Amino acid sequence: MTAIASSSATYDFLRAKAHIVAIRKSFVSPELRIGTWAARPGLRGFGDTDVPDSATSYTCLHVVGDLITLLDAIAPDQDKVFVVGHDWGAYLAWLLCLFRPDRVKALVNLSVAFMPRNPQRKFIESVKAVYGDDYYMCRFQEPGVMEAEFAKLGTARVMKEFLTYRNPGPLFLPEDKMFGHPPDAPIVLPSWLSEDEVNYYASKFEKTGFTGGLNYYRNFDLNWELTAAWTEVQVKVPVKFIVGDQDLVYNSLDAKDFIHKGGFKKYVPLLEEVVVMEGVAHFINQEKPDEISKHIHDFIVKFH
C-alpha cells in the first residue's frame, strides 16, 4: 500500500500481493513522483506492520478503517484522493470506494475486478461449489493448516512459487502436492524478479509468519455478513481497470465474462477503461512497471 500526495491532490496506492507484501520502487514511476511526496504503509498483518492475533481483526471494515485513519493523518486538508490497488489492495480499494466514495477522486485497480455481493450464498461456499476443497482460497480457511504446509516448503520457496505462477486458470493447492511439481524442482526466476527481492520478501515473512496474510482470506465469509447493507450498491467513482491475460484471477470464477459482458459496468457505472495486457500474469505491476506507471499517470492527469 502506498500513498502519494501533491499540492493539488493525494494519490493513495494500495498494494498487497497474495501472501506477500513489499512496496517496490517500480510501482511508482519517476513521472508520478515529480512534485509529490510518498508514504508507503503496509496492510495490517504484513511486512513491518502490526500483526493482530485475532483472525477477526482483519475484516474489510477494520482495514478500510485503517485507510481512512491514514488519510486523515497524512492528508487532512485533502477532501478526495486518487487510489491505485493491486490484488488484496485492489479488493480493499473497491471497498474503500464502496464505503467512502466521498474520499476518492478516481481509482486505478489492477488484477482484481469488483466482486458484487451474492445475497444468496456466502463467498467461500460459492467458491467451493465451483472448484472444490483444493482451490487455494478454500485451502486457506483452516487456521494453522497452510502455515504448516508453507513451513515444510520453506519461506523463500513459497515466495518463488507464488511470484512465478503463470498458469492462466484457477490455482489448486492439494495437500502434499502444492503447485503441481516436486518441492525441490528448480524454479527459474523471470527477468523482473531477483534473488535479492525474493530473499527480502522471505525475510519479512520469516519475521511475521503467514497467518496475518492468510487471515484476509479467512474473513471472506465474515466480510459477506458485514457488507449486507451494501448488497447491489454500485461503486460510483471513475475507474480504470488493468489486468494481464495470463492472470489466474482473470481466468477464474467467470471473471472474463463479468468484466467484458456488462456485469462490471453494471456495478461500476463510471468504469472508463478496461486494459487487458497480453502475455502478462498476476504480478502485473512488477512484470510491466513502466507500462503500468504510464497507464496510471495517463488516467490521473485527466482529473487535474
Automatic annotation (TrEMBL):
Read off the Pfam families from this record.
Answer: Abhydrolase_6 (PF12697)
Q: Which residues form the signal peptide?
A: none
- Write down the InterPro entries for this protein, in alphabetical order: AB_hydrolase_1 (IPR000073), AB_hydrolase_fold (IPR029058), Epox_hydrolase-like (IPR000639)
Keyword list (alphabetical) reads:
Hydrolase
Q: Where is the AB hydrolase-1 domain?
A: 41-292
Which PANTHER family does the annotation name?
EPOXIDE HYDROLASE
The family note in this entry says: Belongs to the AB hydrolase superfamily. Epoxide hydrolase family.
This protein is called: Bifunctional epoxide hydrolase 2-like
**Source organism of the structure:** Prunus mume (Japanese apricot)
Gene for this chain: LOC103323044
